[in-house]
Design a protein that fits this description.
Blueprint (H helix, E strand, L loop, with lengths): L4 H14 L9 H4 L1 H9 L5 H14 L2 H6 L12 H12 L4 H20 L9 H6 L24 E9 L3 H12 L4 E4 L14 H8 L13 E3 L8 H4 L9 H8 L9 H13 L11 H13 L4 E2 L33 H7 L3 E3 L2 E9 L2 E9 L4 E11 L2 H11 L16 E7 L14 E3 L12 E4 L5 H4 L8 H9 L4 E8 L6 E4 L5 E4 L4 H20 L4 E3 L7 E2 L7 H11 L8 E3 L29 E3 L14 H19 L1
The protein binds flavin-adenine dinucleotide.
InterPro entries: FAD/NAD-bd_sf, Gluconate_2DH_su3, GMC_OxRdtase_N, GMC_OxRtase_C
GO molecular function: flavin adenine dinucleotide binding; long-chain-alcohol oxidase activity
Family: Belongs to the GMC oxidoreductase family.
């Protein structure tokens, strides 16, 4: 995005306030952060959002805005560092949600680029040296060549079933249907990347493999939304935690008018998925960050268990594993690219990449194919007897609405499993960016109300790009000090099984727009999780414990403050959007299955109530949040519904 002189001055001042550099460490602008952000803005497909951001930037440096932020009648860029920091803090503390959202958006953008960019000459960033982070690992010289060959899009194509999106849902459907002899075409908007392309680089990884270059968020900017956008979708970048759907969730889902969830069909599907993904318990070595969590959980007498994972013997559970969120360069992750899409390809399915589906073609109430556009602007029409929308829980509802479907449940009932983090500093070196991505979990507080709703505790691969969105920024000095101590920190992630619902609306441009406000009950559970996580870290021996509140809230067990003061201060900041940093890695429920068109977008077979031979098979299909990491559930639903699709189109 081209910035005006005023916007550039504003962005430069903001970036340098977040990261002014010192003692030989360059400032954000010296590293090229404002230019990199301007470039990254182009990865947002929404012109209106780019324009709004541009307007906000231009206004930010105006005298009235600076005065409103407590900086007097001055331009923000003319203020000294301490005054600029105070203005930024006024945004973080604001009672107005959009101001908090702007703060979080700017903070994420400035700091993820600051800690992610290489040096200007392309070499190692001096910032990595200053925090003792090794930077990208580099490519694997022994990586095998790619196993799949994408097909060349033609102006007109024909098949039995066209699958839109190739992630957990789409990949599975394609594999099952092609193995049953149906002629399948998979259309994926993202590119095809495999072992030979992965180098553990964060910024480049976000840009190439994540939706909107990793910059997707709710429309108020307060909840960062992470989703994969490559061949294989989220399964290429996810953390390989492989929980099947819990029985109590299956029973709850069955009450939504889909009895199969509690029956043999779903059981068989889950078994097939677990087997094809090679889910096993042999790759859950507790690295330092997970050993710390386990220590704390055991000390408290909490439930704790190893996490089962879909990886093969090549998983090193070490340095490489920690970077797997940017693709596994050892080929150990059993993503759908390595499994179901491989099956589909071997059975003759054609796979189109870098091709976006615009609409489903509907004639006489039935799906007849799709129209799509290649990255170089060519139009493609694919005629088919059936269409499966598996574009993920943001883009599937958008596709259905763009195609004229009107069921009011499309885009409703969105669940996000909102995540926040509590961190602790330890005497021992943890290097939380190394080792098994997630090796231990606890369900100690998974059932807070007696009906299976609560929080799950898990760790995560804390590379700077994952750490930064949750690390409080009170001042540049404080923040840099905390980044420099990151190698001594372990984090306890809190995943809320959300009862409240968000919404995916569709802009005039056809793009998804996400609205989500945490329901009161979910905020209560989040609070319980924050307290539980602090207790775990304290029991594990943390020297200093801090949360992800918009203000720095912390205590030093036995030295200053206490769990009680920590919770009182967290409560004072609050748990509304933006008062605590939130992210989502699990986007679900926005075109759900159910027994009636009154409360569901799709019928118990996953077919839309409105259009025959149009199915949805992805995270959108969930009747409610599962409370566990969703990949296995998504693939199980896709596997189960694929049997029904095959029976229809056989
Ligand atoms: C960083 C991260 C870590 C995670 N860790 C775990 C974990 O450890 N365990 C777990 O169970 N889950 C995990 N998840 C969640 C899990 O990976 C996702 O829930 C799952 O991949 C979603 O599957 P899906 O089929 O709904 O969509 P996706 O896998 O997101 O696939 C949708 C695909 O559709 C494509 N698409 C979108 N629009 C179009 C269009 N118009 N035309 C063509 N293609 C389109 C997208 O590019 C994308 O590739 C993680 C997710 C992330 C982002």
């Amino acid at each position: 995005m081209d910035l005006s002189a005023r916007q550039r001055r504003s962005l430069t001042a903001i970036c340098d306030t977040f990261a002014p550099g010192a003692d030989g460490v360059p400032s954000a602008s010296a590293l090229g952060v404002p230019d990199a952000i301007a470039e990254a803005l182009d990865l947002n497909p929404r012109a209106t959002e780019r324009k709004q951001f541009g307007l906000a930037l231009a206004a930010f440096d105006s005298k009235p805005m600076t005065a409103a932020g407590g900086g007097g009648w001055n331009r923000f860029s003319d203020l000294p560092q301490d005054k600029r920091e105070a203005v930024l803090r006024s945004y973080a503390d604001s009672r107005l949600m959009p101001k908090r959202g702007l703060f979080h958006g700017l903070r994420r953008a400035a700091l993820i680029h600051y800690y992610g960019l290489p040096a200007r000459d392309g070499g190692a960033s001096p910032v990595w040296g200053a925090i003792d982070y090794p930077g990208p690992l580099g490519k694997n010289p022994d990586a095998p060549p790619k196993a799949l060959t994408p097909a060349e899009p033609q102006a007109q194509m024909e098949c039995d079933v066209v699958v839109v999106g190739s992630g957990a849902g789409g990949g599975t459907v394609a594999g099952v249907l092609a193995a049953k002899g149906l002629d399948v075409i998979v259309v994926e908007a993202g590119g095809y990347y495999d072992d030979e392309d992965f180098d553990g680089g964060e910024l480049d990884g976000l840009r190439r493999f994540y939706l909107n270059g990793g910059g997707m968020a709710t429309d108020d900017g307060n909840i960062a939304l992470a989703a994969g956008a490559v061949l294989g979708g989220g399964t290429v970048v996810n953390y390989t935690t492989s929980f099947p759907t819990p029985d109590y969730v299956r029973k709850e889902w069955a009450t939504h008018g889909v009895p199969d969830f509690d029956g043999q069909a779903y059981e068989t599907a889950t078994q097939a998925v677990m087997e094809r993904l090679g889910v096993n318990a042999e790759h859950s070595a507790a690295n330092p960050k997970d050993a710390i969590l386990e220590r704390g959980m055991r000390e408290l007498g909490f439930h704790v268990e190893p996490i089962i994972r879909n990886v093969g013997p090549a998983c090193d559970q070490g340095i490489d594993c920690g970077r797997c969120g940017f693709g596994c360069r050892r080929g150990a992750k059993r993503s759908v690219t390595k499994t179901w899409l491989q099956d589909a390809f071997e059975a003759g399915a054609r796979i189109l990449v870098r091709t976006k589906v615009d609409t489903v073609i509907v004639e006489a109430g039935a799906a007849r194919g799709i129209s799509c556009t290649t990255a170089d602007g060519r139009s493609v029409r694919i005629n088919a007897r059936g269409v499966v929308s598996a574009a993920g829980a943001l883009h599937s509802p958008a596709l259905l609405k763009r195609s004229g479907l009107e069921n009011r449940n499309i885009g409703q009932h969105l669940r996000l499993h909102p995540v926040t983090v509590v961190q602790g500093w330890f005497d021992e070196e943890v290097r939380p960016w190394e080792g098994t991505m997630q090796a231990r979990y606890s369900d100690e507080h998974a059932n807070l109300d007696g009906d299976g709703y609560g929080v799950k505790y898990e760790s995560g691969p804390l590379n700077p790009s994952l750490l930064l969105p949750f690390l409080p920024w009170q001042s540049a000095t404080q923040h840099f000090e905390y980044m420099a101590a990151a190698k001594f920190s372990a984090a306890c992630g809190i995943i809320v099984r959300d009862r409240g619902e968000g919404e995916v609306k569709v802009g005039r441009d056809g793009q998804p727009v996400v609205r989500e406000q945490l329901a009161e009950v979910d905020r209560g559970h989040l609070r319980t999780g924050i307290e539980g996580a602090a207790r775990i870290l304290e029991a594990a021996g943390a020297q200093r414990i801090f949360g992800s509140s918009a203000k720095l809230v912390e205590y030093r067990p036995g030295q200053s403050g206490s769990l009680a003061s920590f919770m009182a201060e967290s409560d004072a900041v609050g748990y509304e959007n933006g008062q605590v940093a939130l992210g989502s890695f699990h986007i679900m429920g926005s075109a759900r299955m159910g027994g009636s068109p009154v409360n569901a977008a799709c019928n118990p077979d996953g077919e839309t109530w409105e259009v025959r031979n149009l199915w949805v098979c992805d995270g959108s299909s969930f009747p409610t949040a599962p409370g566990v990491n969703p990949m296995i559930s998504i693939e199980s639903i896709a596997h189960m519904n694929a049997q029904k699709i095959a029976a229809r189109l056989g």
